[in-house]
Amino acid sequence: MLAASVTPFSLLQSLTVPTLPTIQREYGADQPTTAWLLTGFLLTSAVATPVLGRLGDSYGKRRVLVVALAALLAGSLMAALAPTMKWMIVARVIQGVGGGSLPLSFGIIRDELPDDRIASGIGLISGLLAGGFGLGIVISGPVVEHFGIHWLFLLPAIVAVGAVVAVLRLVPESPVRTRQRIPLVPALLLAVWLSALLIGISGAPSHGWGSPYVIALVGVGVVVLIGWVFLELHLTIPLIDLRLMTLRAVWTANVVAFLTGMALYGSHGFIPQFTQTATDSGYGFGSNVTEAGHMMLPAAAATLVCGVYAARAAAVVGSRNLVAIGCTTATVSLLLVALVHDVPALMYVWTGLGGLGTGLVFACVASAIVAAVPQEHTGVAAGTNTNFRTLGGACGTALTASILSGYGTASGVPAEQGYTTAFLVLAGAVLVAAVLACFMPSPRPIRRSRP
């Protein structure tokens, strides 16, 4: 039932990515307005993930999980029935609250499962999050082609209904709670600096990294971030205990998640665009949306398999070694995509290899975070790690888009060298993560408190 809880959110991360041009035409909107379907969802999920994780730690994870799923359900139904683009953007903002389902699920797993099943449960949920992102890209084309745009949101809504019923009937309320109030000022400051950074980074490809718009937003984000950190460190009851973030196991895992998120979101967002490029450009395969999505299926499948079996593999080779292996595998995949991309059959192999690598990383990184923090801080620590992945994804997507725009041609299609450069940069990011993984401490076994 917890797997069902994170599935609709993981799909909604990417279902709209390949279909944005179709949605734009359907509603007669311009490109900047349509882009808010992604930006709005990303902003809300980035803010809601750590805040809901903290609320779950304080007042009960099942209760807050139901709230997160109810918001995702309401937003999905609103989007499915949206008469205008503005209505759909508001709906996507509400959907983003569902991001809290991930840290809350981690916390419930740690509270309820036997010690020997906690790591595998966390790995499965992590695999579903990353695998669902790839699966959303795969199925979005066929769904729109055969059923229409509205079914992009009705399908996750149906899953969310089942998840709410299952959680209410089968998941017990959390016995581990801090029962501490949530400080409002740090929560507001968190929302401000995350929003400023994400909007600024997301707008960089269209406005330019050196534009006053981007510099102002990123500057505001950095200044508020500094103030937020100072406040959190001096509060008796902080929103996020930043002292936990200084633990070597925690900060290394968060940086690895950020860099791997860059590679995952950057590659998954633009490999389909590459394959859809017309062959008369000198590269690309002229695929339609459905065919381009099929090319990402091996990545989604490999990620899901890693989520199931990563804990068993970690017991043999060690989770730190497995993270390094996963980062190295993802690096090789992106190098091959950058340099050997003229045969469609090989692209299936390269994307599958990438899914294998990122699947191993995220399954083990999540377990490392949970193992490193006290049980009563599981939700907020896991939510913060998810945010590092989200921020990395935003940077990876914006950086890739900026590189491609720098290699624009008279026809409006990026030159092949643009894709080569972008994928090499993403490979470099995950290679740094591979080196950093070697410095992660070996996590202790994850145990839950005994009454």
From TrEMBL:
Task: Tell whether Transmembrane is among the UniProt keywords.
Answer: yes
Cross-referenced Gene3D superfamilies: MFS general substrate transporter like domains, Multidrug resistance protein D
Q: How does it sit in the membrane?
A: Multi-pass membrane protein
Could you tell me which species this protein originates from? Nocardioides hwasunensis
List membrane-spanning regions.
35-52, 64-83, 89-109, 121-143, 149-171, 183-201, 213-237, 249-271, 291-310, 322-341, 347-374, 386-407, 419-440
Q: Which residues form the Major facilitator superfamily (MFS) profile domain?
A: 1-445
Keywords on this record? Membrane, Transmembrane, Transmembrane helix, Transport
What the entry lists under Pfam families is as follows: MFS_1 (PF07690)
Keyword Repressor among record annotations: no
InterPro entries named among the record's database cross-references: MFS, MFS_dom, MFS_trans_sf
Protein name per UniProt: MFS transporter
Its subcellular locations are: Cell membrane
Where on the tree of life does the source sit, at the highest rank? Answer: Bacteria
